Amino acid sequence: ADSAGSDWVQVPGGLKWVSSGRDIVVGVNSADNIYYRVGITPANPTGTDWVQVDGALSQIDVDGAYSVVGANSASGIFKIRSCFSYFWTQRALTGAWQQISGGLKVVSKGAAGINAEYGEF
């Protein structure tokens, strides 16, 4: 069951863009490196560490749980699926980024699909 938080808590790291979904938090830093948060549990919702994954994105977004999308500095659009790891308690980013046709500066993924912003899709 989801529980509402009562306060903001600063998490170590220096990310310029962060997105969260069910059991996953992803972000990118000023060098366009991609990270996801590990150690997220109901008892420790801030997690324990950031793990870098291959690729470079200037913006990133996660839908509820399964898909992560993003745009790079050249307006390329990419997607990757998240999967469960750590004994089925948390999601991680695994596999390879797949490029999607079109060009965007900002992309968002929701129930209706990929939403285009600031470009042509």
The arrangement of helices and strands along the chain is EEEEEEEEEEE
Helix content: under 10%
Instruction: Name the poorly predicted regions.
Output: none
What is the number of E strands? 11
Query: How many distinct helices?
Result: 0
Q: What's the shape?
A: globular
What does this structure look like?
It is a single chain. With 121 residues, the protein is mostly beta strands. 0% of the residues lie in helices and 56% in strands. The protein has no helices and eleven strands. The protein has strands at residues 15-21, 24-29, 33-38, 49-56, 59-62, 67-71, 77-85, 90-93, 98-100, 103-110, 113-120. The strands form three sheets. Strands 5, 6, 7, 8 and 9 form a five-stranded antiparallel sheet that branches. The model has no long low-confidence stretch (mean pLDDT 80).
Question: Main attributes?
Answer:
4-stranded antiparallel β-sheet, 5-stranded antiparallel β-sheet, mainly beta, 121 residues, 0% helix, globular
